[in-house]
Amino acid sequence: MKGLNPVSEKRTTNNSHAATGKFVDVAEYVDINGIKQFLYHTGDFAENQVILHLHGGPGNAFSNKAYLLKSWDSHFTMVYWDQRGAGKTALKNPTSVPTFANLLRDIDEIILYLKKKYNKDKIGIFAHSWGTIIGSIYANQHPEHLAFYIGVGQVVAPIENEVVTYHETIRRLKEIDDQEAINILEKMGAYPGERAEEFLSKMGVVRQLQKKIGMISINPQKNVEAIKQSPLFHPDDLHTKKVCAHLLPSLFEEMFPYSLYHYPLTYQIPVYYILGEDDWQVPSVLGVDYFNKISAPDKELILIKEAKHTPMLEKPHEFLKAMRKVVGC
């Protein structure tokens, strides 16, 4: 699919409505909530559990990296959505500003579309990082459509998240007696600040120091190289950062004061968390604490050892084993 125009691309090995036993490999734009949005479907058997992927960021579309999870194809039918304000959906709709409200409605319409397309009563949700915010809210509010919710890099509350990771960073810097780095952090003033704009500015400094001491593993160039290897890649995809820059600021403002504790602790569907044990970008300790407080018809917490914020890419074998365990396949 390399080189296809992202405005009109559509690849179909089999685009039937869940033709039993048939291979699924479809890239398409679908009319969702007033705009055309990009979905990529992949799987070896259309009758397998269908799972909607909610990517992180905001703005960090995962469809162009879906090929890295091809080992999942024999077990699930994955549907990767470029959210409003991200990826190919953003390129096609450069003035469509995402909000919690329209993203939640987007999810609802996509879920209904997938139920019909694959003739399923329930769709699963797999959410990562930022995607766990809208995914958790949707799972709480619309259990009638969902088979389960899987949270990875689970965000509980962004402000608490940053306070915890900041203090852990200071602790580790003191351990190695890096006074220069400590001074840099202390000169920033209170962290994360009072507004999202202030937080985003300071966060860049914190993340660079965390990367320096091995707390997180962010590599933008490696990410770009991975995208370029994707069969979905088109050169226009490299311009999404510029498009997202003017679409996402208001969403960050809306996200900043969010907390899962503002929503019921009782879920009506199975809830599974698969977390990187060493995740300090979104501290897994907060996800574990929240998970222990919720109730659900079935729930399970799996910690992936020696993994950080993207355990599905860092420890693919262990992660797939965990996914198969909770999904039951």
From TrEMBL:
It comes from Mesobacillus maritimus. This is Alpha/beta hydrolase. Gene3D superfamilies: alpha/beta hydrolase (3.40.50.1820). The keyword Hydrolase applies. PANTHER family: HYDROLASE, PUTATIVE (AFU_ORTHOLOGUE AFUA_2G14860)-RELATED (PTHR43798:SF33), MONOACYLGLYCEROL LIPASE (PTHR43798). It comes from the Bacteria. Residues 75-315 form the Serine aminopeptidase S33 domain. InterPro entries: AB_hydrolase_fold, AB_hydrolase_sf, Hydrolase_4, Peptidase_S33. Keywords: Hydrolase. One of its GO terms (molecular function) is hydrolase activity.
